[in-house]
Amino acid sequence: MFNLIKNIVYIHAKSPKSKICRVKWRAVITRTYCEAPIDYTQIPIERIRNFSIIAHVDHGKSTLADRLLEFTGAITKNSGQNQVLDKLQVERERGITVKAQSVSLLYNYKGNEYLLNLIDTPGHVDFSSEVSRSLSACQGVILVVDANDGVQAQTVANFYLAFGKDLTIVPVLNKIDLKNADPDRVTKQLQSLFDIEPQEVLRISAKLGTGIQSVIEALIERISPPKVDRTAPFRALLFDSWFDKYRGALSLIYIQDGEINVGDEVQSCHSQKTYSIKSLSLLRPQEVVTKKLVAGQIGLIGCNMRTSKEAFIGDTIHLSSCPVEPLQGFEPPQPMVFAGVYPMDQSQHVNLRSAIDKLTLNDSAVSVDIDSSPALGQGWRLGFLGLLHLEVFSQRLQQEYGAEPILTAPSVTYKITLKETKQNIKTGREIFVNNPALWPDTVHIEETFEPMVIGTIITPDKYLGPIMSLCMERRGVQRNATNIDNDRVMLQYDLPLCEIIIDFHDSLKTISSGYASFDYEDNGYQSSNLVKLRILLNGTAVEELSNIVHISKAQSIGRKMVLKLKEMIPRQMIQIAVQAVCNGKILARETIKAYRKDVTAKLYGGDVTRRMKLLAQQAAGKKKMRMVANISLPRETFIDVLKK
């Protein structure tokens, strides 16, 4: 078969085509020739290594992944393409990893061929669920630390995430080529924080390719092979999925036991649905089609899954003829930030719904509930893991699916204990509210609770004062403070989630000149004095503009909102009173003056009573209009107010 392809290509290459075409044909020959002879199923279990790369944002994970791909021959060196595994447009524009990507590498070590399954993970706290899922298919991790910046907040979080799963940790100091790099200082930080011995730490420069071979050899020597059984019935963990418009839902699986072939009938433990395997492939990083996958490998399966609900992350896949015990799955990530998503026009509702369905398959951490608004129409209430997660999801909707969504201001989920009433016989009933429009009346509320987080801040000590002031301003309570070395401090604060989701990170970077890093984790609910801040326009409440705030900040937030609305609401024929109200008390007010027609312009003289009569008639008409008129706000005004 290969000789036939070779002869056909040779004939085309001899024809009068351009040199570029002949080079492309030769590339096809080379790729076909190189991929065909390798039988991945014959690599024994003891020569397989599954590992992830974890680090803080911008510490060089994707660059290190590029060098590993080049060193093992998966991609051509100096191909001109950087961050090969960052395939999304949003990742290249922002310079961050959003989606974990897998790739299978081959490396000859001491005369034996090793299969290295690499998973490149995100570094931002909002995508920690991607990291957690990736680690479930690994036996070890590369912990990358910047030799210039040192240990950062997300470095600490990712270390303990891997440590809790009992994975082998290979510490790597990156960017040792920088002028201000201080590897000895950072090595001492690793020893004081994580008890990592200095001789275990590898020093590399991913940009220049220095020390890459030592990293690969350390992976092979330190990380243990997967504990799997190829003779047992087939069983695999589905830990990632995405949507292909031609093939439907594609699932990335880690095979724990047995083997799978094209044409096998498999069943999902979650949905109990049966599928026929249409395609099997390995990612190198392009798809390489294979007819069989065996235990210990990470591969991609296509089996005609049509909808996002069928590809359940954490599901166990097995042969339909041989039921097995399900593997331990994942705890579903709990959304922490909620926002309303609406189409720019209701005629785009169907297209936006289809785009959200496909994108939630790729990003299973997003929760979706149907919502509606009198001002914006039918839409959805989406839950995200953080503000960056929300921004990236919105950007992907626009870039990948051509949608133009309207996103309302983000909010969090509050817990409310209701009083006993005649309609509510059961006392102490708890409800959860993430939409201010659904906040119950004050007379029915017994107690309110807000979500809390444990925030970890690592900063140079010279910025300690301003950062502590910022945390106190955001109602934070200090837990502890630890000196990492002579000039860096790690702070831990209990912070309300609603105080950090909007601009806390930006404020922290501003006051620390960009040197401080921030990470947070969920810490349950805490009793708090929360109130509903309502906006009235001429005495009529506008629910879309309502907000849930702490009572200590109700007046300042109310003042900001009425000033903003005064600028954005267009003037009308009647005077508009914009009021911020909390518990029946007016906290702030601004007045939007009405348009005034000069009804006395036609007068050219005469008694002043004629002028006064016309002005009195105008005033009476304005008063009557204010009594009967409903204020008409353009849809664009709601969009401008809700998005800010």
Explain what you see.
This protein has an 8-stranded antiparallel sheet. Strand 18 and strand 19 form a beta hairpin. With 644 residues, the protein is of the alpha+beta class. Helix 1 (2-14) packs antiparallel against helix 2 (19-35) and helix 9 crosses helix 10 (387-401). It has 6 domains: 2-35, no CATH class; 40-222, Rossmann fold (3-Layer(aba) Sandwich), CATH 3.40.50; 235-319, Translation factors (Elongation Factor Tu (Ef-tu), domain 3, Beta Barrel), CATH 2.40.30; 337-407, 2-Layer Sandwich (Alpha-Beta Plaits); 414-528, 2-Layer Sandwich (Alpha-Beta Plaits), CATH 3.30.70.240; 532-643, Elongation factor 4, C-terminal domain (Alpha-Beta Plaits). The model is unreliable at 1-37 (pLDDT under 50). It is globular, with a radius of gyration of 30 Å.
The number of helical runs is 15
Head-to-tail CA distance between termini: 62 Å
Instruction: Characterize the main sheet.
Output: 8 strands, antiparallel
**Oligomerization state:** single chain
Rg estimate, integer Å? 30 Å
CATH top level of the largest domain is Alpha Beta
Secondary-structure-based class equals alpha+beta
Q: Portion of residues in helices? A: 25-40%
The strand order across the widest sheet is 11-10-16-7-8-15-12-13
Number of strands: 31
Q: What is the number of domains?
A: 6
- Unreliable segments of 5+ consecutive residues: 1-37
> What name does the CATH topology of the largest domain carry?
Rossmann fold
Query: Which range does the strand content fall in?
Result: 25-35%
CATH superfamily of the largest domain: P-loop containing nucleotide triphosphate hydrolases
Estimate the global geometry from the Cα principal axes.
globular
CATH architecture of the largest domain: 3-Layer(aba) Sandwich
Mean pLDDT: 80
